[in-house]
Amino acid sequence: MSRRRTLGTKKKIALLVSAATVAGGGAFVMASTSNAAPTPKSASESTVCLGLATALGNNQKFIADQRANPDAQSEARIANREAVVAEIKRKQEASGCAVGESAQDSQTAQPAQPAQPAQPSDPAASAQPSDPAASAQPEQPAESAPAGNTGGGAAASGQQVCNGSTVTLSGEGGAPAASSNQFPAGTKLKVTNLDNNKSTTVEVTSVSGSCALLNNAAFEQVREPGKFLIRRALIEKVG
């Protein structure tokens, strides 16, 4: 009888040890799961991530274009944009976005507008602008307006351009300014965020991969808190 009781006690101890081992393993798995880093968001999941990805893509495209067609100032421009790329990647990490994800053009988020070719038999058709909004609103004489003017209409109105384009930031510092792939340096653009009716009038100072890319100071004047992309933007050429 005593032997049976002794064996029974040993079995109980073995069972208790096994149970403790299993419980400890489960706790380890749970701890490992709870400590796992959250999955970074993609541009399709977050407006913030989309804006940063667009800014990154625009700067990477600018660098690629400079390397493909270099001039005397290309190395300096590339060095400046590489610093901007590094800053955007830091913002992606801080915002929980996929670091290094880029969108090649800010206009890719918008549906493509069907082309409307002119009729060869109509001589007047070739003189019509391809942008319907531009034809409805002819360019006004240039008016002087201070850079960085905000308030949704305080600056002079002009010809609407780049219809359907979104606007994001380049990551560059300095006084309020813009870069563009369509307008030369010295052109004045008025950018209005239609979601909050804030606007800024800035001068184009460099080339980028989109119609209007605002630097940090200009973007701060028209942005919505926490957003890095203006989906509903009105872009006007005022000088």
Order of helices and strands: HHHHEEEEEEHEE
Name the structural class.
Answer: alpha+beta
Reading off the top of the CATH hierarchy, the class of one domain is best stated as Mainly Beta
Q: What would you call the shape?
A: elongated
β-sheet strand percentage: 5-15%
Termini gap: 106 Å
Q: What CATH architecture label of one domain applies?
A: Beta Barrel
CATH superfamily of one domain: RlpA-like domain
Mean pLDDT: 73
Tell me roughly what share of residues is in helical segments. 25-40%
| Lateral arrangement of strands in the main beta sheet | 1-8-4-5-3-6
Largest sheet: 6 strands, mixed
Any low-confidence stretches, pLDDT <50, length ≥5?
A: 106-155
Rg, Cα atoms, Å: 28 Å
State the total count of DSSP E strands.
8
What does this structure look like?
Keywords: Signal. This is Biotin carboxyl carrier protein. It comes from Streptomyces paradoxus. The protein has 239 residues and is an alpha+beta fold. Among the domains are: 48 residues; 107 residues, Beta Barrel (Barwin-like endoglucanases), CATH 2.40.40. 37% of the residues lie in helices and 14% in strands. The chain contains five helices and eight strands. The strands form two sheets. The chain has a six-stranded mixed beta sheet. A two-stranded antiparallel sheet has the order 2-7. α2 packs antiparallel against α3. The longest helix has 33 residues. The relative contact order is 0.15. About 21% of the residues have low confidence.
